[in-house]
Amino acid sequence: MTTTPWHFWIIVVIGVLWHLVGVFDYTAFQLDWTPYTQLATGRQIQFTENMPDWVDAAWAISTWVGLLGMVLLGVGFRLSPLILSISMFATVLIALWLSLFAEPTVFGLAGWWGLLGIWLTALLTVLFWLYARDMHKEGIID
Hints:
Number of strands: 0
Order of helices and strands: HHHHHH
Organism: Palleronia marisminoris
Protein name: SPW repeat protein
Keywords: Membrane, Transmembrane, Transmembrane helix
Radius of gyration: 16 Å
Structural class: mainly alpha
Strand content: under 5%
Number of helices: 6
């Protein structure tokens, strides 16, 4: 194992915090936690309640598996890139569905900010996976 680069812990902490936000968002909607859901419009709440089960499952995988992958990256688990790739695929799948196939689409539901938000989220999951993969290739995680 080689020396841990200076940026490793910065990326891990950012990734864990990012995924904690996703886990909170997912869990708050699943539990219908009023202090959080009252921030959404009635149309947005209805949308999340009527999403297909596979989208809901992909949302859970995206958030919870992403958090697990970042924590495992932090402890140097060699399969963390694989785990993060599962979260990445789930997130990109959700972004595609929300952008192209959902009725209404994320743009129709939340405008440009919603569209930007979902694709920035997808981009971050790709970047976290690429980072973990590179840390594995460089021997930082074994």
